[in-house]
Amino acid sequence: MPPLSEFLTFAAVGALAQLVDGALGMAYGVVSAAMLLGLGLPPAVASASVHYAETFTCGASGLSHLAAGNVRRQLFWTLAIPGAIGAVIGAYVVIHVPADGMRLALTIYMLGMGVFLLWRATRPDRGHDDVVPRATRPLGLVAGFADAVAGGGWSALTVTTLVARGATPRTVIGTVHLAKCVVSAAASVSFLLHLGAAHGTAVLGLIVGGMAAAPLGALLVRRMPARAATLLAATAVLALGLSNVVKALH
Protein backbone atom coordinates (compact mmCIF):
# COMPACT_ATOMS: atom_id res chain seq x y z
CA MET A 1 0.00 0.00 0.00
CA PRO A 2 1.47 3.46 -0.95
CA PRO A 3 2.45 5.62 2.05
CA LEU A 4 -0.30 8.22 1.46
CA SER A 5 -3.02 5.58 1.04
CA GLU A 6 -1.76 3.81 4.16
CA PHE A 7 -1.83 7.05 6.15
CA LEU A 8 -5.36 7.90 4.95
CA THR A 9 -6.55 4.40 5.88
CA PHE A 10 -5.31 4.77 9.44
CA ALA A 11 -6.67 8.31 9.62
CA ALA A 12 -10.09 6.95 8.63
CA VAL A 13 -9.81 4.32 11.39
CA GLY A 14 -8.96 7.03 13.92
CA ALA A 15 -11.82 9.24 12.75
CA LEU A 16 -14.41 6.45 12.93
CA ALA A 17 -13.21 5.35 16.35
CA GLN A 18 -13.33 8.96 17.60
CA LEU A 19 -16.92 9.35 16.37
CA VAL A 20 -17.92 6.26 18.34
CA ASP A 21 -16.01 7.53 21.38
CA GLY A 22 -17.65 10.94 21.06
CA ALA A 23 -21.10 9.39 21.04
CA LEU A 24 -20.43 7.03 23.96
CA GLY A 25 -17.64 8.57 25.99
CA MET A 26 -15.84 5.25 25.42
CA ALA A 27 -14.75 2.61 22.89
CA TYR A 28 -12.07 4.57 20.94
CA GLY A 29 -9.43 1.99 21.80
CA VAL A 30 -11.46 -1.18 21.33
CA VAL A 31 -12.89 -0.02 17.97
CA SER A 32 -9.59 1.25 16.54
CA ALA A 33 -7.63 -1.79 17.78
CA ALA A 34 -10.21 -4.16 16.32
CA MET A 35 -9.99 -2.39 12.96
CA LEU A 36 -6.17 -2.41 13.01
CA LEU A 37 -6.24 -6.15 13.69
CA GLY A 38 -8.65 -6.50 10.77
CA LEU A 39 -6.12 -4.66 8.57
CA GLY A 40 -3.52 -7.30 9.46
CA LEU A 41 -1.38 -5.62 12.12
CA PRO A 42 0.05 -8.00 14.77
CA PRO A 43 -1.71 -7.70 18.15
CA ALA A 44 1.26 -6.10 19.94
CA VAL A 45 1.77 -3.52 17.17
CA ALA A 46 -1.96 -2.74 17.03
CA SER A 47 -2.15 -2.18 20.78
CA ALA A 48 1.07 -0.14 20.83
CA SER A 49 -0.15 2.09 17.97
CA VAL A 50 -3.46 2.77 19.72
CA HIS A 51 -1.77 3.62 23.02
CA TYR A 52 0.80 5.94 21.43
CA ALA A 53 -2.06 7.83 19.79
CA GLU A 54 -4.29 7.79 22.87
CA THR A 55 -1.59 9.39 25.00
CA PHE A 56 -2.20 12.54 22.92
CA THR A 57 -5.93 12.30 22.21
CA CYS A 58 -6.93 11.33 25.76
CA GLY A 59 -4.58 13.92 27.20
CA ALA A 60 -6.35 16.69 25.32
CA SER A 61 -9.78 15.29 26.17
CA GLY A 62 -8.91 14.76 29.84
CA LEU A 63 -7.52 18.27 30.29
CA SER A 64 -10.69 19.68 28.71
CA HIS A 65 -12.79 17.74 31.23
CA LEU A 66 -10.53 18.97 34.04
CA ALA A 67 -11.02 22.58 32.95
CA ALA A 68 -14.78 22.02 32.78
CA GLY A 69 -14.92 20.66 36.33
CA ASN A 70 -15.79 17.11 35.29
CA VAL A 71 -12.89 15.42 37.13
CA ARG A 72 -13.03 14.07 40.71
CA ARG A 73 -9.54 13.87 42.13
CA GLN A 74 -10.17 11.02 44.56
CA LEU A 75 -11.69 8.88 41.82
CA PHE A 76 -8.88 9.87 39.44
CA TRP A 77 -6.09 8.61 41.72
CA THR A 78 -8.11 5.53 42.69
CA LEU A 79 -8.29 4.58 38.98
CA ALA A 80 -5.05 5.94 37.53
CA ILE A 81 -2.44 4.25 39.74
CA PRO A 82 -3.84 0.68 39.59
CA GLY A 83 -4.68 1.24 35.91
CA ALA A 84 -1.08 2.18 35.08
CA ILE A 85 0.21 -0.91 36.91
CA GLY A 86 -2.24 -3.13 35.04
CA ALA A 87 -1.25 -1.52 31.72
CA VAL A 88 2.46 -2.25 32.26
CA ILE A 89 1.67 -5.90 33.05
CA GLY A 90 -0.68 -6.16 30.07
CA ALA A 91 1.89 -4.67 27.68
CA TYR A 92 4.44 -7.26 28.79
CA VAL A 93 1.93 -10.07 28.24
CA VAL A 94 0.83 -9.00 24.75
CA ILE A 95 4.46 -8.66 23.62
CA HIS A 96 5.59 -12.07 24.86
CA VAL A 97 2.57 -14.24 23.98
CA PRO A 98 2.68 -15.72 20.41
CA ALA A 99 0.70 -13.60 17.92
CA ASP A 100 -1.70 -16.38 16.86
CA GLY A 101 -2.65 -17.19 20.44
CA MET A 102 -3.07 -13.52 21.29
CA ARG A 103 -5.22 -12.91 18.21
CA LEU A 104 -7.54 -15.73 19.31
CA ALA A 105 -7.73 -14.31 22.83
CA LEU A 106 -8.50 -10.83 21.48
CA THR A 107 -11.23 -12.20 19.24
CA ILE A 108 -12.90 -13.75 22.29
CA TYR A 109 -12.42 -10.46 24.14
CA MET A 110 -14.06 -8.47 21.32
CA LEU A 111 -17.04 -10.80 21.21
CA GLY A 112 -17.38 -10.54 24.99
CA MET A 113 -17.10 -6.74 24.86
CA GLY A 114 -19.77 -6.58 22.18
CA VAL A 115 -22.15 -8.67 24.30
CA PHE A 116 -21.28 -6.51 27.33
CA LEU A 117 -22.18 -3.31 25.44
CA LEU A 118 -25.43 -4.86 24.24
CA TRP A 119 -26.29 -5.76 27.84
CA ARG A 120 -25.40 -2.25 28.97
CA ALA A 121 -27.77 -0.75 26.39
CA THR A 122 -30.69 -2.65 27.93
CA ARG A 123 -29.98 -1.52 31.51
CA PRO A 124 -32.38 1.08 32.92
CA ASP A 125 -30.96 4.39 34.15
CA ARG A 126 -30.66 4.82 37.90
CA GLY A 127 -29.96 7.54 40.41
CA HIS A 128 -26.40 8.78 40.77
CA ASP A 129 -24.15 10.24 43.47
CA ASP A 130 -20.51 11.26 43.96
CA VAL A 131 -19.37 8.47 46.28
CA VAL A 132 -16.38 6.49 44.93
CA PRO A 133 -17.77 2.95 44.51
CA ARG A 134 -16.15 0.08 46.35
CA ALA A 135 -13.66 -2.15 44.51
CA THR A 136 -12.66 0.73 42.20
CA ARG A 137 -8.93 -0.04 42.58
CA PRO A 138 -9.29 -3.67 41.40
CA LEU A 139 -11.49 -2.39 38.58
CA GLY A 140 -8.72 0.01 37.50
CA LEU A 141 -6.09 -2.76 37.64
CA VAL A 142 -8.18 -5.18 35.54
CA ALA A 143 -9.25 -2.47 33.07
CA GLY A 144 -5.66 -1.26 32.62
CA PHE A 145 -4.45 -4.81 31.98
CA ALA A 146 -7.27 -5.58 29.52
CA ASP A 147 -6.76 -2.25 27.75
CA ALA A 148 -3.04 -2.86 27.14
CA VAL A 149 -3.62 -6.45 25.99
CA ALA A 150 -6.54 -5.66 23.68
CA GLY A 151 -5.61 -2.14 22.61
CA GLY A 152 -8.84 -0.84 24.13
CA GLY A 153 -11.55 -1.41 26.68
CA TRP A 154 -10.48 0.92 29.51
CA SER A 155 -13.44 3.28 29.22
CA ALA A 156 -15.93 0.56 28.28
CA LEU A 157 -15.13 -1.33 31.47
CA THR A 158 -14.68 1.57 33.88
CA VAL A 159 -17.41 3.96 32.70
CA THR A 160 -20.14 1.34 32.46
CA THR A 161 -19.22 -0.31 35.78
CA LEU A 162 -18.97 2.94 37.74
CA VAL A 163 -22.17 4.40 36.30
CA ALA A 164 -23.99 1.12 36.94
CA ARG A 165 -22.87 1.39 40.57
CA GLY A 166 -24.42 4.81 40.91
CA ALA A 167 -21.59 7.26 40.17
CA THR A 168 -22.48 10.48 38.33
CA PRO A 169 -22.00 9.94 34.55
CA ARG A 170 -20.56 13.40 33.82
CA THR A 171 -17.79 13.13 36.41
CA VAL A 172 -17.15 9.46 35.63
CA ILE A 173 -16.56 10.16 31.94
CA GLY A 174 -14.34 13.17 32.66
CA THR A 175 -12.29 11.38 35.32
CA VAL A 176 -11.94 8.19 33.28
CA HIS A 177 -10.67 10.14 30.26
CA LEU A 178 -8.00 11.94 32.30
CA ALA A 179 -6.96 8.68 34.00
CA LYS A 180 -6.80 7.06 30.57
CA CYS A 181 -4.01 9.47 29.64
CA VAL A 182 -1.91 8.11 32.54
CA VAL A 183 -2.76 4.50 31.63
CA SER A 184 -1.92 5.05 27.94
CA ALA A 185 1.37 6.75 28.84
CA ALA A 186 2.36 3.82 31.09
CA ALA A 187 1.50 1.29 28.37
CA SER A 188 3.29 3.39 25.74
CA VAL A 189 6.53 3.48 27.74
CA SER A 190 6.40 -0.32 28.08
CA PHE A 191 5.75 -0.77 24.35
CA LEU A 192 8.53 1.69 23.45
CA LEU A 193 11.04 -0.19 25.60
CA HIS A 194 10.16 -3.54 24.00
CA LEU A 195 9.03 -2.67 20.45
CA GLY A 196 10.38 0.79 19.72
CA ALA A 197 8.34 3.34 17.76
CA ALA A 198 6.51 0.68 15.75
CA HIS A 199 4.43 1.66 12.70
CA GLY A 200 4.66 5.45 12.86
CA THR A 201 2.23 5.81 9.95
CA ALA A 202 -0.52 4.08 11.94
CA VAL A 203 0.12 6.25 15.00
CA LEU A 204 0.15 9.50 13.02
CA GLY A 205 -2.98 8.50 11.11
CA LEU A 206 -4.86 7.65 14.30
CA ILE A 207 -3.90 10.98 15.88
CA VAL A 208 -4.81 13.10 12.84
CA GLY A 209 -8.07 11.25 12.16
CA GLY A 210 -9.10 11.31 15.82
CA MET A 211 -8.39 15.02 16.24
CA ALA A 212 -10.17 15.90 13.00
CA ALA A 213 -13.29 13.96 14.02
CA ALA A 214 -13.37 15.21 17.62
CA PRO A 215 -15.62 18.25 16.96
CA LEU A 216 -18.11 16.11 15.01
CA GLY A 217 -18.02 13.53 17.82
CA ALA A 218 -18.92 16.25 20.33
CA LEU A 219 -21.88 17.24 18.14
CA LEU A 220 -22.91 13.61 17.73
CA VAL A 221 -23.07 13.02 21.47
CA ARG A 222 -25.66 15.81 21.74
CA ARG A 223 -27.87 14.44 18.97
CA MET A 224 -27.66 10.65 19.27
CA PRO A 225 -29.42 8.88 22.16
CA ALA A 226 -26.90 7.10 24.39
CA ARG A 227 -28.70 3.76 24.04
CA ALA A 228 -28.66 3.94 20.24
CA ALA A 229 -24.94 4.80 20.24
CA THR A 230 -24.19 1.91 22.57
CA LEU A 231 -26.08 -0.49 20.30
CA LEU A 232 -24.16 0.76 17.26
CA ALA A 233 -20.81 0.31 19.00
CA ALA A 234 -21.79 -3.17 20.20
CA THR A 235 -22.82 -4.14 16.67
CA ALA A 236 -19.54 -2.86 15.21
CA VAL A 237 -17.35 -4.68 17.75
CA LEU A 238 -19.35 -7.91 17.41
CA ALA A 239 -19.07 -7.73 13.62
CA LEU A 240 -15.29 -7.28 13.79
CA GLY A 241 -15.00 -10.18 16.26
CA LEU A 242 -17.12 -12.46 14.08
CA SER A 243 -15.05 -11.45 11.05
CA ASN A 244 -11.93 -12.64 12.88
CA VAL A 245 -13.67 -15.92 13.68
CA VAL A 246 -14.51 -16.46 10.00
CA LYS A 247 -10.90 -15.69 9.00
CA ALA A 248 -9.56 -18.12 11.60
CA LEU A 249 -11.84 -20.91 10.32
CA HIS A 250 -10.56 -20.43 6.79
TrEMBL record:
Transmembrane spans: 75-95, 102-119, 139-164, 176-196, 202-221, 228-246
Pfam families documented for this protein: TauE
Annotated localization: Cell membrane; Membrane
UniProt keyword list: Cell membrane, Membrane, Transmembrane, Transmembrane helix
One GO location term (cellular component): plasma membrane
Domain of life: Bacteria
Membrane topology: Multi-pass membrane protein
Entry annotated with the keyword Transmembrane: yes
PANTHER family associated with the record: MEMBRANE TRANSPORTER PROTEIN MJ0441-RELATED, MEMBRANE TRANSPORTER PROTEIN YTNM-RELATED
Membership in a protein family: Belongs to the 4-toluene sulfonate uptake permease (TSUP) (TC 2.A.102) family.
Name the record gives this protein: Probable membrane transporter protein
